[in-house]
Predict the 3D structure of the following.
Amino acid sequence: MNKPQSKSVLLEIRGLKIDGYSDETWVPIIKGVDLTLRRGEVLGLIGESGAGKSTIGAAAMGYARDGTRISEGSIEFDGMELTTATSAEKRALRGSRIAYVAQSAAASFNPAHKLIDQHTEAPLHYRIKKRMEAQEDAMELYERLRLPSPREIGFRYPHQVSGGQLQRAMTAMAMSCRPDLIIFDEPTTALDVTTQIEVLAAVRDIVDQFNTAAIYITHDLAVVAQMADAIKVLLKGEEVEHAPTEKMLDAPEEEYTKSLWAVRSFKRPQKSRPEDDSKPVISVQGVDAAYTGGAKVLDDVSFDIYPGMTVAVVGESGSGKSTAARVITGLLPPMKGEVLCRGAALPPRYQDRTREQLRQAQMIYQMADTALNPKSRISDIIGRPAQFYSGLKGPMLKQRVDELLDLIELDPANFYNRFPPELSGGQKQRIGIARALAAEPEFIICDEVTSALDQLVAEGILKLLDRLQRELGLAYMFITHDLATVRSIADEVVVMQNGRVVEQGAKEEMFTPPHHPYTDLLLSSVPEMDPNWLTTLLEERGVDNIGEAARV
Amino acid sequence: MRDILGLVAKRLGLGLVTLLVVSVLIFFAVELLPGDIAQAVLGQMATEETLARLREELGLGRPAIVRYFDWLAGAVTGDFGTSLIDGEPVTAKITDRFVSTLFLAAYAAVIAVPFAITLGIIVALLRNSIFDRVANVVTLTSISSPEFFLGYILILYLAVKWSMFPAIASISSGMTLLELLERTFLPALTLVLVVTAHMMRMTRAAIINLLASPYIEMARLKGAPPWKVIVKHALPNAWAPIINVVALNLAYLVTGVVLVEVVFVYPGIGQLLVDAVAKRDFPIVQACCLIFAATFILLNLAADVGAILTNPRLRHPK
Amino acid sequence: MSMFVIGYYAALIAASCIAAYFQNRQAFMLLFSLTLVSFVLGIVGGVPALQGVTIFAGILALAAGTSYAFREFLIQVSRPAIAKELRTAPLTAAFGMFVIFTYAIAGIFAPWIAPFGQSEVIASAFEPPNEDMLLGADQLGRDMFSRIVYGARNSVGLALLATILAFVIGALAGLYSAVKGGWLDQLSGRVADVIMSVPSLIFALLMLSIFGTYLWVIVVVVAIIYSPRVFRLTRAVAGNVVVMDYVEAAKLRGEGDWHLIRKEILPNSTAPLIAEFGLEFCFVFLLIAGLSFLGLGIQPPTADWGSMVRENATLISFGDITPLIPAAAIALLTVAVNFVVDWMLFRSSGLKEQ
């Protein structure tokens, strides 16, 4: 992977500053970044949300998105200064010499044209190839990227092709003019882990084969470790550290980088089910469910959650894990089967449940932005359940809210009167937790609570949840697709696929072979920090089998 | 393809049902009349005798539901009954005037539609420039003005002060097309001004909405020049909203035409309706309302069918 | 060539040059294209056309100045949070607010502002303006200016009443449909579809022909005609809010519908609803003006702008602008409201769309 450093420089960015327009003024979002990229080299740009990775990626093409402007610095691509180039000159580079692969292929392909017509647009526009040649070439690229039926797939429309395949088709499209540089802007973020592998493998192969230079933008360290020769870490528009991949992983220098690397280290001992004959807080028994007029989403799902324990429900999108939560809360009445709370059956519809029953099960949501009413004060958000269930008023209520804020480690004096939009993502998630606690429940459903957060913040939330569980004896149903989270806090694991429970049991058992084939696929697909992980995995699975292995 | 046909058929069926419901509404609204039609026509001073005779004549003795189906059956075959005022058949009164109204609306549409869509696309391309802002102010002003305001301004300048066009759009059957076009130029222009502004704004909004899509950014990053981004990447996806804009505005023309006909004393169906309302000649009011509503529903239907037919996702199902 | 024409072109060209020198590309393009257009205009229309342009530019500058000053005034007297919003208002929006403010004053204080009563006959028919009568007399010899002032009270008041009624009906139905869903939602959606499938003016004419042209009939009929628009918008906005997790959380807590509407949904739907209120007012106002113009709205002798246009329409053939004055009063208010709404919509949609 490591190529000699003596190759000629392709892209050179010096002192780049970019402003973004917000609140009627221009504020700097990139504050002086340098970057050097040689031919055939792959540079990983990583950082948390708001670090400016994507903006730099666009700037490398001389492109400033609406609402941003390049205010200072130079961007030199193969001897041409892009900051002063005319728009026609810059346009002539795009698609032919610099290509772009976007995060969401489904949204970035034009729904009105066939894939192959979009593929051949740039080569035809630049008169590099004739139509027939360009189409032949597209089919060849599709084949190299291991797309199924490469000679026909191009003649489909984007909505007729699956997400992982579209992402590969987009990589093929970027290759259509054999550019010198490709910008990959989080190309696998929207995909499931098992689909991610095929795209990663395809991207790496094609970049290697054509010796194309690339900038790979992502927030996932393990992914970038597979792809890049060198890594640049960004924080709030500034460079933190830049080093070759191996060195960066083994011996990061800066504190911030080290903390990023250390995130995945949080782990707590596994608890086991209570010895006495206490009943599970929540017991899901033989539940079938479907949305109105749709196919079955849950098929004979059963699992138990005992007091004080964390049960992680794992699966990819569409596996039915969130639907299971909707059945438990009563938002979606099951077609068959029932949900028991402490051995007593709950009414299927939440409208028919008593306040006491509703109080028992609380929820914490994935998107803290949509989970809190932006027009309510924090004191009202947390105070309302306490008032509603326990009838607290006046000073008693205020005291309870203060207690809850203390519990989630936020200073009451500082947050009591504020509104959610003024808070950071992590703080909002904490308020969401406090709202759930205010009902004094025994059981909390955590729906992907950490997946929208940056890693450091997510770790804080996990630690908080763990502490609360110990102090208050809560039971958690932890819905997630992230196996690292499962490793760190689960006691038991339920693996779901296509609406069925594939496997369940104590965590330690689940993480030691032998596994159910699907569990195995899931586990092995989670990228690891080892730069050789992908290579090894592909060898194990057999190269030709990656795409299809994911479909088992 | 079967999906599309299914959707279109479903939409057509829905349109038909709506039309039926509207016909019920139009017919039974008159039944809500305090007293009854005979009373309303003859007024408080009428004697019992004359009232009874008129009731007999109108068949008011029969239940409303029966009269509704009679009326509907008549309407479908082009017979809307007779006028309460002069006893002439309604259909004869309406036919010529309806044709005149359609002529005026079509005249306006033929000028306004291509003009507005082209301007809308240009303004979308030049968005946020000073021309865009000027266009925004001008179109807003135009859609905010009542039709009669624009109409009288045009009369004042183009007819009275500069004597370029006739102020009163009187037409007769013997005129050549050119004469007709000249006589009806001012009412058509009034409609064009109002409708163009509406259509331009909506076209601009539809296109700008699309320009925010990731696939447009992708097209730009593939090196497509601005005109190609619009023509090749935005436009094929913009047909549905644009067709919608056009249909909506043609439907708007149907309403606007009433006021404009009054301003320019144009012998269309709108004038007839206004007169009939003033004289409480219900068969004519009902017939006109049904015709206007049917046109309106038909245009909305056309928009929806157009949107279905141009949707690539529906045209090429999985 | 008169001094005026020389001065006219000199001013335009100088302004163009200044704009070019300060690299204000847009101002330059505008000024210089105006110069070029003026050449054509000057040749075709002669000096009067150029004078027209000058007067128009003068009026525009005056309006811009007033708007600027009015915006500053509003910023000074408002609370900081509102002042911050106001600072983003373009001049057009400030102009709109100024006009609305003026109309409100005229409407509220009509009896004190108007020199004569609205049905007081004080002169002979169509008497030209003199120092007693700012705008002359109408077809019965009543003071035009007084009637315009009273019209601000009658026409606008009636439209406002109808708008509020339409809004209450539409918004309540929309909010309840969004929260309840199910058959109630379906039913109100279908009813709205049917009402909207009849052109509004036609619907109004039908109803007025049946129930007669009483004020309450106009208000109720117009409210019914336009409430489906409010319903659809509210339903859509509230529909977007209802799917938010915080509403789900409140539902699962066991909160009642009214709490959901009042505390969770309404506070998060106000911005588009306020803008819609403005738009709705424009529609209602124009519809009622149209009805009045057709003689089916507010009945004489009450002063009403739509009817005033109709009553004085014959004057137009003599080149008299009197009937245009009430029509302009209608247009000006609608433009003003639209300017403000345009700004509000721009604010609430964020800068993304642009």
Summary: DSSP finds 24 helices and 20 strands in chain A.
